[in-house]
Amino acid sequence: MEIEVVLRVLFKITGIRHEAIRLRGELDNFFKWLIQKVQSQPIDQAVKDNIGRNIKIVNYHDKDIVVFCMKAGKSPVMYDNRYYQRISSNVEEVKPAGYLEFFPQVYMSF
Question: What are the start-end ranges of the E strands in the chain?
Fold first, then answer.
């Protein structure tokens, strides 16, 4: 199966429709499944609700893409009782020894 891409600046957009259909039969079923996946994650219910209210599938140049919008809270959020931070394109766990550096960075960003 060849997937047509849209070239924008220096990146390609394939969209999710082909995967949504392969995984769940249609886009609406995929979206419902995605919401259920968010609801099953080990994070606070308020965070799940925030994601659920702000997730959407949008059409961009005839490609369906998922947009997750997360509004910042007043404190860091744990995932599975651990803190994580994004460093470049990686997500790394913050070890307890690094909390003294991590928390001021988070609080300074608000």
Answer: 6-8, 11-13, 56-60, 63-67, 83-87, 90-94
CA distance 106 to 104: 5
Distance separating alpha carbons of residues 21 and 34, to the nearest angstrom: 13
DSSP states along 91-108: EEEE-GGGHHHHHHHHHH
> And the tokens for 27?
């886009």
Q: Average pLDDT, whole number, for the chain?
A: 89
Question: What's the sign of the alpha-carbon dihedral 46, 48, 50, 53?
Answer: negative
Query: Which pLDDT score is estimated for 56?
Result: 96
